[in-house]
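RECORD TYPE: protein structure
NAME: Phosphodiesterase
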Amino acid sequence: MQARYDDPYEDLLGLWSDLEAALALLLTEPLRIPGFAIKLHQLDLWLQDLITQDSDAALYLMFQRASSTTVGYSPSHAVVCAGLCHILAKELGLPQPERDTLIRAALTMNIGMTVLQNQLAEQRTPLNSQQAEAVKQHPTEGRLTLERLMVRDQLWLDTVQYHHVVLQPAPLAQLQPLERLVRILGTVDRYAALISPRKTRSGRSATESLQVLQQGGQYADEVKQALIDVVGLYPPGTYVQLVNGEVAVVLRRGKSLEEPQIASVIDSDGHSMYPPIWHLDGRRPAITSALARSSLTLDLDLRSMAQLGIHSARGNAELYRMVKLPGSRR
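PREDICTED:
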């Protein structure tokens, strides 16, 4: 599906929501939908189109959606992981066949427990024994489901079945294709899961999530470094604390990992700012730390902030008069 760009962010936000909805239907009722593999390939092309048009905007929406809600967690998580894998595949120089299999595996790795995964994200109590066993078995159940859907790509099936297997650190070039894809998908899966909230816990900041990966040992390799290189220490769609006491949202990646393009949205007294203050390169307060979305009480308007991001790239100062934040003070 091709995006329409006469009104870029109206289209982008709507298309991103439509993509998640289409994937949710495919993953929730896979055995009732004919042509599963073909439809999944179409969703991959759709995802590629959205990312290719504006990768910073795509990252902004992915991180915003991943960090702000528990509703529809399973398809949202799959889209975020597939999007990050798509960007990483180019950075890591994966051959096209491996890239294609990696994306298919990212979109379907939890097909064995889609409904349960959505339920668990909303559940406030610990897993019962039946749920715990279903979670344990979901990689194998996912493979069996894909085989019933006539998937014959053994690398795809194996990657889904083993995507939670912990591998010893080794250069990607020395790994077999299956080990390589499991290493990449496992790192991305863990990273995206740490950022996302549950009813039983808050999501972590992107920086803290990277630190957790580092502590894990098995993730402290070139995949993690590539993740930093492609999305930054402060990815678009995440929040940062500034040295002047303000809180800013990251709009786009910058010239360096430590200097993304940002706009202040909360002043030093904790009040929302209208209009948001877009900081020009080289003339903004320093970032002191990353913030988890759960630490903020401000409810930003996704559409308006995304528009600010694309117009900041175009140098359109007129947008300051267009952005409106719910509940903001003049």
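COMMENT: Strands lie at 239-242, 247-256, 259-266, 272-278, 287-291.
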